[in-house]
Amino acid sequence: MSNTAQDEAAERAISSVINHLIGKSEVDSVRVHSADDHTGEPALHVLSDWTNKNARPSGAESIRVVKAMLDALQDIGDDRFPYVNFSAPGDEQAEDTRSAA
Q1: What pLDDT is attached to residue 92?
Q2: Whole-model pTM above 0.90?
Q3: How would you class 50 by CB atoms within 10 Å of its CB: exposed for 0-12, middle for 13-18, buried for 19 or more?
């Protein structure tokens, strides 16, 4: 499977998990991109935008969602780990204060 086809299949699998476990009405968007993790291993980076802060999953729910993502990825033969960021309106964004060198 080409990287593009694998990435598209991974995005479908991850979106399906979120829609099934959380519900489409609670999520504005799900974006998935492939990149290496901090050790240089292939990984998936998932950004899930929620409709409001109250819709965002608790810690225990987040673990359940990530576990289901791992299972769905394994079902399609993808062994990359999904690093997930749940964001909602009003969340503070980290500011990069490093100077460009």
Answers
A1: 66
A2: no
A3: buried
Cα(52)–Cα(36) distance, integer angstroms: 30
Angle value at C-alpha 47, between 99 and 86, nearest 5 degrees: 100
Q: Does residue 46 lie in a domain region?
A: yes
pLDDT tens digits, residue range 19-77?
Answer: 888 877 788 889 999 999 999 999 999 998 888 777 677 888 889 999 999 999 999 99
Q: Is residue 54 part of a domain?
A: yes
CATH number at residue 41: 3.30.300.30
- For the chain, the first-to-last Cα distance in angstroms comes to 39
Alpha-carbon distance 70 to 83, whole Å?
A: 10
